[in-house]
Design goal:
The protein is of the alpha/beta class. The chain is built from 15 helices and 14 strands. α10 links the parallel β9 and β10.
Length: about 425
């Protein structure tokens, strides 16, 4: 089986050196998936394990299962360097490839997700922004082609507050919570939710933006550690910003056990550069860690047989595992859609139909060997989030360990917020929300 590396011309040579695989040749009987990746640039330490997880999962479906009911995957990577313009260029170049065009697009960037929503909707290509992107895209009446399962940033903010409240003995009244965030669309996503929760729970909320890529934070942490002195710090960081924040927090003496990052601030690459300073740091996670799940025995065998396409060092890491779950979502959506439209390569419109009927039960998770890696979700026409949850994990200096059970966000308040924001978006764009009755 031949693999070749393709990407934008300006970065193709660099990207070639960054991975073992990227493109599975396309045939008329294969389901094509474009992979928007960033194996190069400032966010490469996070982008590489994500890309590797996608490659390995689709390769596993092909080699172990013979495809989805016999329909094999084909795919091509395109290097975005986490840049919005490159992301749009990659999407436009790849969306028409394969016998039926792009099946689904996974931007792995909130900025690229924002840039692609209208394009992909017009092209009828589902956007799976798993735990990132626009939280209000959970409202499928306004965003029919965008899926946010299993959980959104707004829901993540609620889980963080719930956790801090429990740790504080059941009340945050009079407490101080600071948010250190990447100064981008991604980093700004939780602010409105945290402002609402501050009023409801009685805590003082302060927000501190950090400019890309996040290396300059000393002044921010001097303000936090010596002036504000918060009870908790939450972080919406990415890439080198995360390890830099941990080191600066340690330098001003802020206790790691009171420092909690979102799930994009909780991978191995976020803590190992900080060394011993990171011990005790916490983050949310929406997928399991390690290689205990049975699917890893199949992945190990695939690599032993010479069919693996990822760097084996990434297997079982936080972001590799997250990509496995992501690819499992759209694989099951394709399987559902095949039952309706036939066992053949499907269009994005047909796969969107399947995604709106996803009902990932624990029984399905166990059967797929994914137990411990994910929680159940159920997608409907109106609800594109699916009812997922998050755990709090802690770094012990060598590995991540979950220290809570999965925590359910309080969606009784979140769902109206999604709908109100989505309605405003629809009004601004002149859209008529569809009926899901």
């Amino acid at each position: 089986m031949m693999f070749r590396k393709l990407g934008l011309a300006a970065v193709a040579a660099v990207t070639m050196a960054g991975s073992l695989a990227a493109t599975q040749p396309v045939s008329a009987q294969e389901q094509f998936v474009p992979l928007l990746v960033y194996r190069t640039g400032p966010y490469a330490p996070s982008g590489i394990p994500l890309a590797d997880g996608f490659n390995d999962f689709m390769q596993l479906v092909n080699t172990r299962d013979g495809g989805i009911n016999g329909v094999k995957y084909s795919w091509e990577e395109c290097e975005t360097q986490y840049n919005n313009d490159r992301g749009v260029e990659c999407y436009e170049r790849l969306k028409g490839q394969g016998p039926t065009g792009a099946s689904v697009v996974n931007p792995y960037s909130t900025g690229i997700t924002y840039a692609l929503i209208e394009r992909a909707t017009n092209d009828k290509v589902p956007v799976l922004s798993m735990g990132y992107g626009r939280a209000d895209a959970s409202d499928g009446t306004v965003f029919p082609y965008v899926f946010t399962m299993p959980i959104t940033y707004w829901a993540g903010a609620d889980v963080m507050v719930q956790y801090a409240k429990k740790e504080a003995g059941g009340s945050l009244e009079g407490k101080k919570i600071a948010l250190v965030y990447h100064d981008s669309a991604y980093g700004k996503e939780p602010i409105a939710t945290l402002e609402r929760l501050a009023k409801e729970e009685g805590f003082q909320f302060s927000a501190y933006p950090v400019a890309h890529p996040g290396l300059e934070q000393k002044a921010t942490w001097l303000q936090i550690g010596r002036q504000l002195r918060p009870d908790w710090v939450f972080m919406w960081g990415w890439g080198v910003m995360n390890s830099t924040a941990i080191k600066e927090a340690a330098a001003v003496g802020f206790p790691m056990e009171k420092f909690v990052g979102i799930w994009w601030s909780g991978a191995e690459a976020d803590v190992t550069p900080a060394g011993d300073a990171a011990t005790g740091y916490k983050s949310l996670n929406i997928t399991g860690v390690g290689t205990a799940a049975p699917i890893f025995r199949d992945i190990e065998k695939m690599h032993a047989d010479g069919n693996g396409v990822a760097d084996k060092a990434n297997i079982g890491t936080v972001l590799y595992n997250r990509a496995l779950v992501n690819a499992f979502y759209y694989t099951e959506a394709i399987r559902i859609a095949q039952a309706e439209f036939g066992v053949k390569p499907l269009t994005g419109e047909q796969i969107q139909w399947g995604m709106e009927r996803l009902d990932i039960t624990q029984e399905m998770i166990d059967k797929a060997g994914m137990n411990g890696l994910m929680s159940p979700v159920k997608i409907t026409c109106a609800d594109h989030e699916g009812g997922g949850s998050a755990v709090v994990q802690q770094w012990d200096g060598a590995k991540w360990t979950a220290i809570t059970d999965f925590i359910e966000p309080r969606r009784d308040a979140l769902r109206p917020a999604y709908e109100a924001s989505a309605a405003q978006y629809a009004q601004e764009k002149g859209l008529t929300p569809r009926s899901c009755n």
